[in-house]
Amino acid sequence: MMPGKKVLYLLLTTATIHFLLMIPDRATTTYQVAEAKPFVWNMDDRWAELEHEFNRLRLLPAVVLDSLETVKREAFSSHVEALRQHDFIEHSDPRLAQLLTLFFEWSPVVAASNQTSEYLLHYSEIRNFIKQQSTKWGNIEPYQRTVLYPLLYGMRAAVEEILLQTDSASFDPILWVTNEIAKTPSTRIEGIEVHSGDLFVSRGGAEVSAFISRGNDYPGNFSHVALLYVSETGEPAFIEAHIERGVAIATAGEYLKDKKLRFMVLRPRADLPALKNDPLLPHQAALFAKQEAEKRHIPYDFKMNFYDSSAMFCSEVGSYAYKKHGIQLWQAESTISSIGTAQWLNTFGVENFLTQMPSDLEYDPQLSIVVEWCDPETLFKDHLDNAVMDALLEKANEGMEISYNPWLLPIARVVKGFSMVQNVLGKPGIIPEGMTATQALKNNSFVDRYQNLKEKTEIKIQQFISVNNYRPPYWQMVKMATESLEE
Predict the structure, then answer these.
(1) Which domain, by its residues, includes 430?
(2) How many CB atoms lie within 10 A of CB 398?
C-alpha cells in the first residue's frame, strides 16, 4: 500500500471510530416519580421576622437581654413540662406546633446574648422527647411526617443558626442527645462511645453529597450511611457503599479521613422486641454486612433499588443487613415527587424514586439519636452547599437540564473502556463502575455549574458579613444563591 493511501486509510479509520464514539446513548430507562407531595415551609416572612428580631436584640444592653432570655426560656420550659405530664401526645396535638413556635421565638434572644448552654440542653431533651413520642405513633405515615419533620429538622436548623453566630472557640463539636443502652461490643471514635450495629449518617464534602441531602421531598442534612462493626477486641470497621468502589470496609481512620462535614450516630432502641429477644442482634447484622463485603464484590447501585442486593447504594448496606435479622429500617420510605429533581437524579442513573435516602433514617421510630458531630467551619460549608443546591433544584423544577459537551464523548468513552479494565483487575476506575461515559460528562457539567454558583454565592456572603458583622442565616444564603443564578 502506498504511503499516501496508508495515511488516508488511517485517517478514515480514525474518523470512523470517532464518529461511532460520538453516537449518543439510547434514551434512558423510563421512570415514575413518587406519588407524594414535597414538604414546603411557606414561612419566608417568619424567617425575615426572626432575623429582624435578632438585629434588634443585638442593640440592647446585656442586662435586658439576660432578662428576655429568662422569660423566653421559662415560657418554653413551662410548655415542655405541660407536655411531659402526658404519656402520649398525638401527632395532631396543636401543642406540638406551639412548641416549635416557642423554640423559634427563644432562638434570636439566645443568638444575641450568646447564652447557649441552657438552650442546647433543652434542645437535646425535647428532641429526645419528640423521638420517644413518635415511637408511639406506629409506622410514620405521610401525615405524621409533616409534623415530625418540622419539629426535628426545624429545631436543628434554629440551633445551627445560633451556633454559627457564636465564638468558634466555645463551639463544642459534640452534641449529645440520647444515651441509648446497647450490649454489643463498643469502642470510642472522636471521643464518642459507639457500639457495633450503630448507623453513622454523615454529610460528605462533594457536590453530589449536597444533591443527595437535598434531593427528596423532605430535604435533609445527610448524604451517606455507614454501618459500624466492632469486634470483640474493640476494633472498629465501617461497612459502606461508595460510588467509586461499591461496598467496602474502612477503618475508623479511613472513614474519618474521607471528608465529613457532619455525622450523626443512630442506634436501634433497646426496647424493640427483636432486641429484647436478642440484644446482640445489631452486632450480628453488622457482622453479616462485613462478611458480605468480604466474600463478594458488590457494585454501587446507581438505580437506588433497595429490593435488589446484587448492587447496593449506601442506605441499602444497613437496610439489607438489618432486614436479614428481622428489622426493616426506613419504615417510612423516602419519596421524590418533584419532576425536575427526579430528572436530574435520573441523569446519574437513578430509576427508583420511592427509596431510602440517608437523611430520612433520622425519622425512623425504631432508632434513637445518640449524638451529632460537626464544627463551625464544616457546619458553615454544609449550609453554603445546601443553599447552592436548593437554588439549583428550584431551577431544575422549572425545567433547567444538565447538558454536556458532545465533542468530549469519544474521549470519555475511551476513559470508560480503560476504567472497565481497571474494574476487572479489582481497582476503582476513573469513571465509576455502573456509570456511563455520558453520565460522567453530565456529572462534570453539574459540578462545574455548582462550583460556579458557589463561588458567586460566597462573594455575596462575604459582602453580607462585612456590612452586617454576622453570618447570613440560611434563608439569606438561599436568596443569594438564587440571585446569583438569575444574574
Answers:
(1) 390-486
(2) 8
